[in-house]
Structures are given as structure tokens and as C-alpha cells.
Amino acid sequence: MNAIRNAKIVATLGPATSGSERIGALFRAGANLFRLNFSHGTHADHQKNLDAIRALEKETGRPVGVLMDLQGPKLRIGRIEGGSVNLTKGQGYRLDLTDKPGDAARAPLPHPEVFSALEPGTKLLLDDGNICLRIVECGDDFAQTEVEVGGPLSDRKGVNVPNSVLRISALTDKDRADLQFGLSMGVDWVGLSFVQRAADVLEVTRLVDGRAGVVAKLEKPAAIDELFEVVEAADAVMVARGDLGVEAPPEDVPALQKRIIRACRFAGKPVIVATQMLDSMIHSPVPTRAEASDVATAVYDGADAVMLSAETAVGEYAVEAVQMMSRIIHRVERDPVYRKYIDAQRRDPQPTAEDAITAAAHDAAHTISAAAIVTFTSTGTTTLRASRERPAVPILGMALGLETARRLSLAWGVYPVVAQIVENMDDMAREAGRVAVAEGFAEAGDSLVVTAGIPFKKPRTTNLLRILKIE
After folding, report:
1. Considering the domain boundaries, does residue 202 fall inside one?
2. Where are the beta strands (DSSP E) in 2-158?
3. N or C, which end of the chain has less CB nearby within 10 Å?
């Protein structure tokens, strides 16, 4: 019980952490979910890792979530003669659709959708923002630019078009093939890259068709303009600070992060903060103090999860990075100020029966000093409502199916368990007490606050609150 954290940890698998032994070590160190990055690796690699995760799940008896992360469109310049050129501030530089190798005066950009979104004054960022070009003149197949920030430009460097909505689907042909493969092997969450609008999320939601939850990765400023619509369309959200930090000014990213977390908290959608959280631990056994503060800030803000990327995928100290992140979370959640921050962000319930029941459960647990809130759920909705309230006691998420329990491993404060099927309220009371005691949340004499929906197994009907005393 003492090892339970409210905020969860997502660990990315890669060459440094493939195989049953390494995955097991990450789990024991504190990872709650595992991310399969489909920008790298083969289908066989991902299948092997997922098989290892499912074997770990059976061994430990704990539901373990798996997030597949789709690559999304990658905008890149074409080939450059000699491999690279050096651009200097103030010089002119042309981009066009021709496939002739680039040189000191021009480069191919094989993306007509980029040219259609340009206008004079628009800025293009190349090589993760290391080079900045300002559009002077443009057409359907070319852009004449002036170099504002120069430097070496080499083959196939990435291109970002900040503050512009591109006429391009968030799903490439590769993504569609990867998505079908991931769903066939049974992933729990699908991370969607290159989200520009809510319609992008709805497109993949239709393809997923309830077989997994959809995580909208917010990495483009255009998506922030439709923030509430995107959050509403998604099942969860990721603050993907890598590309977001390229397309938005660095000084804007902290405020955007807080704004996204707040929107997700309001909507009751899980939110993950990702990218460079403990970046120095790729090669160092300890993080910088700034990185520790970065993780802590996300936890103070009430994020459901924090994510490790290269730190665990290719890092030299993958297990240590998870252990460090877990210790930071534990330390923050023991801080008396943490509870004040969390309570200050609590939203007023909406005028619905479901919100009324969930808010009352939060208040009742506080008033009677309950050992835990127990939620019975078939789809996860009842439990996510309880998580949104950010109670001061653990949430025992009694899922009526393994797939739901796996998805709930992402939610703040939730300890997911696969519950036995209950047919009536007496069954529910017995099962709640049995699991709470067996999992170490309660003992004889303790009280539990239970929420559920009647009739049982009917989705999205949170309409029951019951207080139980364990005999």
C-alpha cells in the first residue's frame, strides 16, 4: 500500500529495455504503463515486447497498460548534394518541389501541402528549430525565403510550419498499417501524432472503434486553438513537449502545459506530460535539479502520468530513471502543499446524476476518513469520474473486464483490479470488502465508499453511492 502513487509512470521500450528481464525490472522500479514507439522498430520487435508485458501481467497478477505511439506525418527536406550546406543569416534560400539535389541556393521540399499553407511572412523551422527561414515569396510549388537563423543544413532534416494548419491527414499509410497491427495484438491505448484539429482525433477514433483508448498528442500550436474540442474528442491527452517546443516559443511551453492539464482536469480526461523529463539520465545516473523540478511541477499540477522516452528506450540508466521518477512523485505527494494545490483545482460538479454521485463520494470519503473509494465499472467511466475529483484516499478501480483494468492503469490515483462479476448490491459489498482487504487497502473496522451503476454492467450509469464498514 505504501508503494502506491497517485501519478503514474509511462516507460518507453527500445533497444535498452527489450526482453522480459528488462521489462520486468522497469515494472518493479515503478512503471505503470509501457509505450511502444512505432517510429522505431519492426512489428516483430513490438510483438515480442507486448508478449513479454502480457507474461509479466500474468506473473504479477497486475493489469499493465500498453500505449502504441503512431509516428504520424514527417515533413523533411530532400537530399542535398554533398550531404550538407551552411546557411548564413540574411541570405536567400529557395525551397521547391523538384527532386534535384539541393545546394547552397536551394533544396527540395517534397510536400505540396506545405506550400499550399504558406504566405509571405510565414516562418519555416528546419532541423528542430535550429534553422529559421522567413517566406518572402511563394507559390504552389516553391517558396523563396530569407534565412533568419542560419547554420548547417543536412539531408532529410525535419520541417515545422508553426501557426499554420496543413491540409494533411494525421494518419499516413504507415500509420494505418501500424494501427491495424497494434489493435490486432491488443494494445490498450493509441497515441495519435500530428493532431491539428478535433477532426483528426475523430478520424482515428472511428478506425479504433472502441478497441483501445485514443491519446491525442498535442505537439502543434494549431491544436491548442481547438483545445477544448480536441480534449472532448480524445480519451486522453499527451503534452508532447518535443515538437510543441519547436513550433511554439520555449517560454510559452510551460504555460501551454498548465493550460492543457487544466483543460483535461476539467473534462475528466487523463493527461500525460512527456519529453525530456529526465533527459540527462540517458547518460547519467542522476538527473539535473532542473529536471527533478520539471517532473515535480507536472505532479503538483495534477497530471495523471509522466513519461520517459529516450531515458528508458536507449538510456544507460533506464531502471534508475524510473526509480528516480517514482521517488520524485512520492516526495511531491507527501508534501502538505501538494494537497492544497490539488484541492484548489477541483472543479464544481456538472448538474448530472453521475457528477453528483461522484462529488458526494469524494466528500463522504473525507468526512468519514474512509480507507478507499471503490468504483465498479464496465467501461472505466465511473472510475475516471472518481479520479477527476482527485480524492485524498486511494481509488480501487474494480473493472468488470481485463481490458478496462489495463486502460485504468493510466488514471491518477487508481489501483485497477479485475473484479468478479456482481449481480446485486450484496455481491458488490462483499467483493468490494474482499478486494480492499486482499490488496492491503483496508482492514476490519475500516469504511469504504462505493460507487457503481445500476443495473450492473450497463455502461455510463453512475447512480449509486454506498458506505460500507468492513466487519
Report:
1. yes
2. 8-13, 33-37, 65-69, 84-87, 92-96, 106-108, 123-126, 131-138, 142-149, 151-154
3. C
Alpha helices in 173-272 (DSSP H): 173-185, 198-208, 221-225, 227-233, 241-247, 253-267
The answer to whether residues 322 and 415 belong to one domain is: no
Total domains present in the chain = 3
Strand partners, 8: 305
* Domain hosting residue 137, numbered range: 84-160
Average pLDDT, stretch 31-47?
97
Beta-carbon contacts of 93 under 8 Å, excluding residues fewer than 6 positions away, are 87, 105, 106, 107, 133, 145, 146, 147
Please name which of 441, 233, 321, 306 lies closest in space to residue 35, comparing C-alpha atoms.
306
Specify the DSSP element, H or E, that contains 397.
strand 395-399
The domain boundary residue, chosen from 125, 160, 195: 160
pLDDT per residue as tens digits for the range 56-111: 999 999 999 999 999 999 999 999 999 999 999 999 999 999 999 999 999 999 99
Q: Is residue 110 part of a domain?
A: yes
**Where is the domain boundary, 287, 318, 342?**
342
Whole-model pTM over 0.70: yes
- End-to-end Cα spacing for the chain: 20
* Residues noted as catalytic: 35, 76, 217, 275
Residues 283 and 378 in one domain: no
Q: Is the pLDDT of residue 1 over 50?
A: no
Contact 324, 287 (CB under 8 A): yes
Looking up residue 103, the CATH number of its domain turns out to be: 2.40.33.10
CA–CA gap between residue 75 and residue 346 (Å, rounded): 40
Residues 188, 133, single domain; the answer is: no
CA-based torsion, 133, 134, 139, 143: positive or negative: negative
> 79 lies in a domain?
no
CA 50 to chain centroid, in Å, comes to 18
Q: Is the dihedral of CA 37, 42, 43, 48 positive or negative?
A: negative
**Polymer length in residues for the chain:** 471
Rounded to 10 deg, the angle between the 336-344 and 318-334 helix axes is 80
